[in-house]
Write a sequence for this structure.
């Protein structure tokens, strides 16, 4: 049976109605192709997700019909383009339930969002001997900006440990919160392990000591409904390309009072209110943080991705993916010599694994011969690999369009890898 076709009447029914994964797959043209003569099995969505027609068409339509620069024009196209861009901001606001559209800053991606906070809030608030607390499971994008800041300010980077299942050790994290801690920055969901962190609890612990919290949500927003007000999180950073939108766009959510108090990130057009050689006054939120012509069309594409996700429903996506993750975990656990790296109680969409005596790059290369796309390497989380004493893992990451049949093909592929190296 091809990966994208409906199962026959006798085949096990993969998905409960009303979630129709086979119908959803029809929305993603790239998934219809063959790779190396085999139907593509795309299990690399944590690195970047594929795009539905709705997003591809929205970008194409925008360039064909509405494109112009935004905010500055009185003419019709500029007004239409501005509306498309600002409507996307409202969609993001609604999607994460921010209190105001002024709290939604468009940036290039999660990496830029975190750097923005480090270079503005961080530079203003962190001084010599202060501390920034992160965790062992962070992506390099949520390590290096804080390292650079701490180096510049002669501050200290503290790291909360994880256990062998890949879960944060909360008692240890709490002990690391001190009067010198100026910010806690951690992943909502780990890209290397899939761990969903107990962020409500951590935010509560930090706020009890008046410490703000930044969540790196790059791996959270594609998989679960998010409510930033309910979380009471201070900064929330994510990328469009991991949530079925275009690359080159991301979002920084920040509480309005914090953003108001922060200095601007970059200087240039649009972020100003008035400029003289003597003095510049800055624009209001969110424009204060959006210097220069932004990635207009891709912001519109992100808006279309949000429309798409909301049509399916984040609750339905989460429930489906949890079922698929459970199926995959059970299937992989049966393979002798395979260890799943990251076995947290609360997990999302990631199956990182090591095969005894076989280098992950060999695993990835052989699976590719079967049209199976997995990622191998340190997943931009080298300290996680060090924690588990591994140079790398192979990682199959799931998304709303993956099927049980694809997991079966992965399992068969892994058995082939083992055969080759036996
Ligand atoms: C947890 C996490 N944080 C941050 C990033 C960086 O995202 P981007 O490269 O889109 O800025 C990634 C990307 O893999 C990620 O998985």
């Amino acid at each position: 049976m091809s990966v994208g076709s409906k199962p026959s009447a006798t085949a096990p029914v993969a998905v409960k109605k009303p979630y129709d994964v086979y119908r959803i797959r029809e929305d993603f043209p790239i998934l219809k192709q063959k790779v190396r003569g085999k139907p593509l099995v795309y299990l690399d969505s944590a690195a970047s997700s594929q795009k539905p027609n709705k997003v591809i068409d929205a970008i194409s339509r925008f360039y064909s019909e509405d494109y112009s620069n935004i905010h500055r024009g009185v003419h019709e196209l500029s007004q239409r383009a501005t509306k498309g861009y600002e409507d996307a901001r409202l969609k993001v606001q609604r999607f994460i339930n921010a209190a105001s559209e002024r709290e939604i800053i468009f940036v290039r991606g999660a990496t830029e969002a975190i750097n923005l906070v480090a270079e503005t809030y961080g530079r203003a608030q962190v001084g010599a001997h202060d501390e920034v607390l992160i965790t062992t499971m962070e992506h390099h994008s949520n390590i290096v900006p804080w390292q650079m800041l701490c180096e510049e300010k002669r501050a200290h980077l503290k790291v909360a440990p994880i256990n062998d299942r890949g879960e944060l050790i909360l008692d240890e994290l709490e002990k690391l919160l001190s009067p010198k801690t100026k910010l806690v920055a951690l992943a909502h969901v780990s890209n290397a392990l899939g761990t969903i962190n107990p962020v409500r609890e951590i935010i509560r612990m930090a706020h009890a000591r008046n410490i703000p919290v930044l969540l790196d949500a790059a791996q959270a927003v594609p998989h679960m409904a998010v409510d930033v007000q309910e979380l009471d999180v201070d900064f929330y950073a994510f990328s469009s390309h991991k949530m079925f939108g275009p690359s080159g766009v991301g979002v920084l959510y920040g509480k309005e009072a914090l953003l108001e108090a922060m200095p601007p990130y970059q200087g240039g057009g649009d972020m100003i209110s008035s400029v003289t050689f003597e003095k510049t006054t800055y624009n209001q939120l969110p424009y204060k943080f959006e210097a220069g012509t932004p990635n207009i069309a891709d912001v519109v594409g992100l808006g279309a991705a949000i429309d798409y996700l909301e049509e399916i429903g984040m609750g339905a996506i989460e429930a489906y993916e949890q079922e698929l993750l459970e199926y995959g975990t059970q299937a992989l656990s049966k393979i002798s010599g395979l260890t799943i790296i990251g076995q947290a109680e609360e997990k999302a969409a990631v199956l990182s694994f090591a095969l005894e005596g076989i280098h992950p790059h060999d695993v990835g290369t052989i699976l590719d011969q079967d049209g199976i796309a997995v990622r191998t390497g340190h997943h931009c989380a080298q300290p996680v690999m060090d924690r588990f004493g591994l140079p790398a893992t192979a990682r199959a990451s799931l998304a709303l369009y993956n099927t049980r049949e694809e997991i079966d093909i992965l399992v068969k592929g892994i058995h082939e890898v083992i055969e080759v190296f036996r």
Remarks:
- The pocket of pyridoxal-5'-phosphate is lined by residues 109-111, 139, 141-142, 187, 191, 216, 218-219, 239, 241, 380 (CB under 6 Å).
- The first strand starts at residue 34 and ends at 35.
